Amino acid sequence: MRVLVVGGGPGGLYTALLIKRRNPHAHVAVVDRNRPDDTFGWGVVLSDLTVANLRAADPTSAAPISAALHHWDDIEVHFGGRTVRSGGHGFSGIGRHELLAILQQRCRELGVELTHERELAPDTLDAIVASEGITLVVAADGINSTTRTRFATTYRPDVDLRRCRYIWLGTPRRFEAFTFAFAETPSGWFQAHAYQFAADTSTFIVESPWEIWEREGLAEMTEQESIAFCERLFDFVLEGAPLRANASHLRGSAQWLRFPRIVCSEWVHWLRVEGRHSVPVVLLGDAAHTAHFSIGSGTKLAMEDAIALDARLAADADDIATALTRYQAERSVEVLKLQNAARNSTEWFEHVDRYARLDPEQFAYSLLTRSQRISHENLRVRDGAYVAAFERWFARQSGLTITPGTAAPPAIFTPYRVRDVTLPNRVVVSPMAQYTATDGLPGDWHFVHLGARATGGAGLVMTEMTCVSPEGRITPWCTGLWNETQRDAWTRIVRFVHEYSTAKIGLQLGHSGGKGATKKMWEGVDQPLPEGEWPLMSASNMQYLPGVSQVARPMTKADMDRVTDEFVRATKFGLDAGFDWLELHCAHGYLLSSFLSPLTNQRDDEYGGDLVNRARFPLRVFSAMRDAWPAHLPMSVRISAHDWFAGGNTDDDAVEIARMFRAAGVDMIAVSAGQVVKHEKPVFGRMWQTPFADRIRQEACVATIAVGSITDADQANGIIASGRADLVAVGRPHLVNPAWTLTEAARWEYSGATWPDQYLAGKHQLDRLLARERAAAGVPVATAGPPKGELT
Ligand SMILES: Cc1cc2nc3c(=O)[nH]c(=O)nc-3n(C[C@H](O)[C@H](O)[C@H](O)COP(=O)(O)OP(=O)(O)OC[C@H]3O[C@@H](n4cnc5c(N)ncnc54)[C@H](O)[C@@H]3O)c2cc1C
Ligand SMILES: Cc1cc2nc3c(=O)[nH]c(=O)nc-3n(C[C@H](O)[C@H](O)[C@H](O)COP(=O)(O)O)c2cc1C
Predict the structure, then answer these.
(1) Inter-axis angle of helices 740-747 and 760-777, to 10 degrees?
(2) Is the CB of 140 under 6 A from ligand 1?
(3) Is 479 helix (H, G, I), strand (E, B) or coil?
(4) How far is CA 69 from each of CA 106, 373, 789, rounded to the nearest angstrom?
């Protein structure tokens, strides 16, 4: 076995030493263009888990690495003249220089051939492989890998150059905690990420969106001027200590880089060699993938790639192709997980202006949970006192009187007031069509369904999309509100909710538009009715299922007048029925949504074209309803914040839509996404639509309801506590468990939720069972989250 490793960074060196350790007779060579003691950059962060992995892979090099690690526990956030500190995070830092020296030394001991100051041009690779009889090439040549570029048709790299420019500096200032500092300039926000990695040195990375960086004149500055700028800006944490650069190979403003997020579809290229079998060239570390430095995982990923590659080569020693396929399969999953967390984290730091209006307490909490990987309960395990203090602060903001030292309710169990309505907590039963009405009349099913969810503890129970006319229904079995009989049936349900629960009840009104006249969901979602269908109308000609659905005709102005009147009529019936809250459905491709999206609106009158025109009819309907709905009661609008298809609305448009509705008097935006066109390409995941609710809340300055795969109270608490939304809507979990809110309260040991007296015996038994489960498991509550020491 003859192995050539291109690049002597942590990934390359560690691969070489592991392979050589396991195969003493193999010839393993590392080539690096730098001198052995060159170091660009300062310290890196390693988690306890990574250190344990290193210890298992090679105890000999792990020992000096562990000895050189500088440990710290706390994170400090300096923002708006305040410092918020939270503990229990457990990081370790090591100088890159020191790490490389340890790995080089270990390589030498094992007999790895190290060549420095030799740049290996990828077009010379074929000749070297042929002449030296190389059987495996490991391309660990870093973020700007020229090997990756040469074989780009195989690797198919996807490079996303991120918005911020950053500079990697060092300082003799010793930081006791991992420090995030935020400083505002006339052009916008700059932030520093600082941590100590040696007795007298800390890393100090400064970054800002490129356009702010340019406006501050940094593009024209020399290295010294840049450093002086950063020293002045961050003197409030540097306290007079100087900053230093050490990337002397980069001149002036070139030291300010933009981070490329890199993903490769393939990690192995087979190099054809005359007269021999093809030789694999396998990517490793930053050459294969990158994860933004704000989650501090680049070195960890590179070294863990090395561990996996070595293990696979050993396990499939006789079949290198299988070994490499398995290496890629195993590592790409791990990388994807971190890249997802890194994406949220990167975006957070790219948009500090979005969060700068939050109070320092909430700003810091939002920062700590930015990747959605560290949950509320995970933070509590790390630093219970910090979370308890934060919960007290949050509860006070929600209007509760909390005496110092007493426990406050978790964020979702704080009340929420809007106009004259106070919800007892932040949980909403998301609107969910039941397809069980006759002639639009809610029946016993709806009475029990909505009643059970109200007594189940949610703060707000929303009806399914209730249609304003017979032809505005999705199916013949949808509920409606166009006559007195329906009004009276709704009144019975509303009365029950008010009499037997603490919940409020909201009415969602909508019109199906071009998605009407279909079968029940479980008999064929979106499939047209076999008989009894009615003519459809939409913003423009629309056929939801190409070649299958009925073609809807464009609405005329007379249609618009009539439909507006129908919405107003339903609003008045809703008021008579006693509803506390009104929601207008402008999402999911139904009538009003079809106006908002450019994918379904091709009109050439004043209701089509730019976003202002496309929003004109939905806004007109909203305003007419707002006029008919009393000023003391709230109104929300549900939108699709992203069409998930090229040329459709994105979250940029959603912010504008939210602004327009806010100007028209909306109290909240319920932020859903998609279902506008059938060929959409949504990106699902836990809490997947919450980032849209967050962005709309911060940028359009309007309260939001988050929805979509929010499945437990821990996630919901994180969303509310961080200010990503004001309410969380929970859909499918409520289909399974009407008492979702009460069950979650018990599961997370919150005793303040209001149980119906009739169910208290059940509560007591549940409390006992859960206590027994916790005692058996030996933990307070199950907490998901990354291992301590990962900067997420
Ligand atoms: C600002 C910043 C902060 C970071 N902070 C952290 C952190 O806290 N924790 C963390 O884990 N990671 C951090 N990283 C990431 C980390 O530095 C990298 O992810 C890590 O070094 C990747 O290791 P690697 O071996 O794959 O590549 P590199 O360390 O980049 O090594 C590649 C090597 O290949 C050599 N090379 C390239 N081309 C050739 C060629 N043609 N011929 C010969 N040699 C060549 C280069 O000289 C280099 O030595 C940070 C990165 C940045 C930019
Ligand atoms: C059976 C069912 C019916 C639904 N009906 C409606 C509806 O009438 N109006 C609406 O706005 N959303 C409707 N939705 C979407 C949900 O309100 C919610 O946004 C979606 O299910 C995602 O939330 P979840 O992951 O908590 O289920 C429906 C969803 C389901 C599963």
Answers:
(1) 40
(2) yes
(3) coil
(4) 17, 25, 12
- From 166, 590, 607, 750, active-site residue: 590
User: Which ligand ends up closest to the CA of 202?
Assistant: 1
**Distance in angstroms (rounded) separating the CA atoms of residues 720 and 427:** 10
Structure-token pair, residue 411? 């964020």
**Rounded to whole angstroms, how far apart are CA atoms 743 and 729?**
16
* Nearest-angstrom CA–CA distance, 192 and 502: 46
pLDDT digits (tens, 9 = 90+) for 683-705: 888 899 999 999 999 999 999 99
Percent of the chain predicted with pLDDT > 90: 88
Q: What's the rounded Cα separation, in Å, for the pair 632 and 630? A: 6
E-state strands within 641-761: 668-672, 703-707, 727-730
Q: What is the pTM of this model?
A: 0.91
Distance CA 661, CA 703 (A): 12
CA 9 to ligand 1 centroid distance, Å: 6
The residue whose CA is least distant from atom 22 of ligand 2 is 708
Q: Which of 672, 534, 521 is nearest to 596 (CA)?
A: 672
638 in ligand 2 pocket by Cβ < 6 Å? yes
Choose which residue among 427, 428, 429, 430 to substitute to test ligand 2 binding: the one with the highest number of ligand atoms within 8 A of its C-beta. Answer: 430
Q: 511-545 pLDDT, tens per residue?
A: 999 999 999 999 999 999 999 999 999 999 999 99
Ligand (nearest to CA of 178): 1
Q: Tokens 């960890």 map to which residue?
A: 300
Among all ligands shown, which has an atom nearest to the Cα of 478?
A: 2
Q: What is the dihedral of CA 202, 207, 213, 217, to 10 degrees?
A: 0
Question: Quick count: other Cβ atoms within 10 Å of Cβ 441?
Answer: 16
Q: How many angstroms separate the Cα of 99 from the Cα of each of 10, 68, 94, 776?
A: 7, 8, 7, 42
| Residue from 432, 449, 637 whose mutation best tests the ligand 2 pocket (most atoms within 8 A of CB) | 432
Q: Which residues are bridge partners to 191 per DSSP?
A: 182, 207
| DSSP H or E stretch at residue 137 | strand 136-139
Inter-residue contact 404 to 395 (CB < 8 Å): no
Q: Is 590 a catalytic residue?
A: yes
DSSP letter for each residue of 177-190: SEEEEEEEETTEEE
H or E element, residue 430: none
Instruction: Pick the atom of ligand 1 nearest to 166's CA.
Output: 1
Distance from CA of residue 270 to its chain's centroid?
36
Ligand 2 binding pocket includes 342 (Cβ within 6 Å): no
Is the Cβ atom of 120 under 6 angstroms away from ligand 1?
yes
